[in-house]
Amino acid sequence: MLITGCLGPYKKEYIRKNGHRYPVQLNGVVIYDAYGRKLIWSIVEDITERYEAEQALLESQARYRRLVEKIGDQFVIYSHKALTGEVTYVSDGMDKVLAYRKRHDWQVLDVLSMAA
Q1: How far is it, in rounded angstroms, from Cα 64 to Cα 59?
Q2: 31, 33, 46, 79: which sits with the fewest CB atoms below 10 Å from its CB?
Q3: The dihedral formed by the CA atoms of 97, 100, 105 and 110, expressed in degrees to the nearest 10
């Protein structure tokens, strides 16, 4: 904080008067008052909604992954980044269709050019 004049962001849990815990994000910045005294202006943000949305997304991804893995080798599911072509996911069915057995082979394999 001495170099940048900023503090955070830090994530913590606060406790309400009723004992309920909730996630917050803390940020701060060094300011000076009219007398030149150094102060810290702190911002405490309740991030409950963001935290719950992140947890829901992680759970959804896990459910999707389990579903895809249960499909087995009867279907092929392939996902890649459109701009870079980087493979992000290949189901086990692709291993059977193209006779590749090692997952790391997909990192260098250009599946779209093989299909042409």
Answers
A1: 9
A2: 33
A3: -30
